[in-house]
Hints:
Helix content is 21%, strand content 26%. The chain has 311 residues and is an alpha+beta fold. It folds into three domains: 5-70, RNA-binding S4 domain (Structural Genomics Hypothetical 15.5 Kd Protein In mrcA-pckA Intergenic Region, Chain A, Roll), CATH 3.10.290.10; 77-166, Pseudouridine synthase (2-Layer Sandwich), CATH 3.30.2350.10; 172-305, Pseudouridine synthase (2-Layer Sandwich), CATH 3.30.2350.
Amino acid sequence: MPGVSxxxxxxxxxxxxxxxxxxxxxxGLSLGRFQKLLRTKQIxxxxxxxxxxxxxxxxxxxxxxxxxDEKAAPYRESGVSAKDAAFVQSxxxxxxxxxxxxNKPSGLAVQGGSNTNRHIDGMLDAxxxxxxxxxxxxxxxxxxxxGLLVLARSRKYADxxxxxxxxxxxxxxxxxxxxxxxxxxxxxxxxxxxxxGERSLVSESGKPAIxxxxxxxxxxxxxxxxxxxPLTGRTHQIRAHLEYLGTPIAGDNKYFGGxxxxxxxxxxxxxxxxxxxxxxxxxxxxxLVLTAPLPAYFKADLEAxxxxxxx
Length: 311
């Protein structure tokens, strides 16, 4: 039939369902017409009738009837302003064929929401670097937390990374400047957390939450640089656990109130929590540990307090 084409499934689309494949490459195709094309066997996979939820495998052949009017428009970089494109590209600290790692600044959200128009998700089209598809978010860090954010460059690695994050197979290390010094200076916080409004509070009815920590250096008992390793992934876990110890994070407007914070005007009024290190070795079956440099304000405050840290 004139106009019929046979398209091979790309490696990047391995595991994608047939309906999502058509949505990706033919966004103008209505659901009703897509279902009719399936019923009338105008769409086939490897020469056989297919269901909408069929999971595709790379190398399979999809019979596509004439759909020129429903094709995706070519990618245009104009979707992201030149200023934002240059900015988000400057955040990249690691790149290979499978993933990207950014050093996200404090104050920039990962995804949009109420009153949030500028975010990483809205700039992903500027991070293709010649690939056919935009990278994918596989985890999140708080808007006010700085540091490592991992992006997948293909569906295969999106699935691998999502599973690894969910199962806590990618050890993460955070750095926090606390008001006060935890006592003891190293230990494990096992305190269940319950989401209440925009905060996570320690509660017997909460979900299990475990954080390892140790003090790297301190300024007497007034401030401390704390290394924290979350073994579970609860919302605001490190922030809530350090507040629970009586040593909230400097600049934390959710867990360290305004009146108390005014006593420390010499400290930058930003959250001093940084996603510093991540071990991605399980993804590659070889050692790959990445670190993100501290923000300038964080480093300056450590120096002003006489707290030492070598990156």
